[in-house]
Design a protein that fits this description.
By secondary structure, this protein is an alpha/beta fold. Helices cover 48% and strands 13% of the residues. The mean pLDDT is 96. The structure holds nicotinamide-adenine-dinucleotide.
């Protein structure tokens, strides 16, 4: 259990990729702070299950990451329970699929706040402790959409390109402090986020569900397979190892060949 004694905070970890990160890190002995929305009983069941994986502690923060003051409270809660955060995974994100001329302004603001600005706040608050410890890992779940665009996703693509730029910048700022900062950029991963955008894509492109699955989602992925949350989490775990300390400022694709085209 190579993460015993370390603490990991994963934003947006009540479902999908975030929950897979939490499980992978907990299995290696890290204390975990999970965050996100959802049914209170289901979240409490997940929190307890995380503790059972290694005997380390797991905390839940219901902070709404579009609200900077709630992010500050979450970081304080983590610091008072565990001293600070050694591993920060900026993972929370949302999507809205619509052409730019009718794209709702409030959806633009939400996506920029959650997918981009929240990572600025968590990172600025986590870095001082990491610098003091001389060790830290910051990982963002970016996306193939941090490297290439798709129509009808203007806010998401803008936020993800910017998130990748932000990670590179912080990687340079912390390069001498034992801290690495990287993005993992998956293609389509089968999670509620993908499931939920099928109806909007059907509407935006006038397609059936089948057509969206085959001609939109998997059309981008030469492997014709969804990435799994567990594959993404296994790579994050590798980035936490000492063997990975030379990997910083990278934006690593896990997209079945999508961005090779
Ligand atoms: P998901 O919808 O399963 O999970 C999103 C998480 O964010 C949930 O825990 C949710 O409760 C939380 N969340 C939503 N709004 C929040 C808010 N205001 N404050 C705090 N938490 C909030 O999605 P996922 O597919 O697991 O996506 C996780 C990340 O991976 C996102 O950043 C997404 O852009 C990225 N990503 C996903 C895919 C994919 O195909 N699923 C591909 C590439 C990148």
């Amino acid at each position: 259990m190579f993460l015993k004694g370390k603490t990991a905070l994963i934003t947006g970890s009540t479902s999908g990729i975030g929950l897979a990160y939490a499980k992978a890190l907990a299995r290696e002995g890290a204390n975990i702070v999970i965050n996100g929305f959802g049914d209170a009983d289901a979240i409490e069941t997940e929190r307890k299950a995380l503790q059972e994986l290694s005997g380390a502690k797991a905390l839940y923060s219901g902070a709404d990451l579009t609200k900077p003051e709630q992010i500050e409270d979450m970081m304080k809660q983590a610091a008072s329970a565990f001293g600070g955060i050694d591993i920060l995974i900026n993972n929370a994100g949302t999507q809205h699929v619509e052409a730019v001329e009718t794209f709702p302004v409030e959806k633009w603001d939400l996506i920029i706040a959650l997918n981009l600005t929240a990572a600025f706040h968590t990172t600025r608050l986590a870095v001082p402790y990491m610098k003091k410890q001389g060790w830290g890992r910051i990982i963002a779940t970016a996306s193939a959409h941090s490297q290439v665009a798709s129509p009808n996703k203007s806010a998401y693509v803008s936020a993800k390109f910017a998130l990748a730029g932000f990670a590179k910048t912080v990687a340079l700022e912390t390069a001498r402090d034992g801290i690495t900062v990287n993005c993992i950029s998956p293609g389509y991963v089968w999670t509620p986020l993908v499931e939920n955008q099928i109806p909007d894509t059907m509407k935006a492109r006038g397609m059936t569900r089948e057509e969206v699955m085959n001609d939109v989602l998997l059309s981008a992925q030469p492997t014709k397979e969804f990435v799994t949350p567990e594959q993404v989490a296994a790579f994050a775990l590798y980035l936490c190892r000492d063997e990975a300390k030379a990997i910083t400022g990278a934006n690593i694709s896990m997209d079945g060949g999508w961005t090779a085209q």
